[in-house]
Amino acid sequence: MQKVSFDEDRCKGCELCVGACPVNIIYLGENLNAMGYHPAQVHEQGKCISCGFCARMCPDVAITVWKEGAR
Fold this sequence. Notes:
Layout: E1 4-6, H1 16-20, E2 26-28, E3 40-42, H2 53-57, E4 63-65
Antiparallel strand pairs: 1-4, 2-3
């Protein structure tokens, strides 16, 4: 189940979400988005604790976080 997603075309690669993640599953991808930035991505969705720290730190509102059973 997906717990966090990134709107890669809105991400400017500022890395604030990377530093905010307590389980260290967010990283900047190798690919470039439409604006020419390396967007944030997540690996190991199963380790996400849905804390929402990443979404709160994102100045571009490019991150969505879901809690289990709250869809």
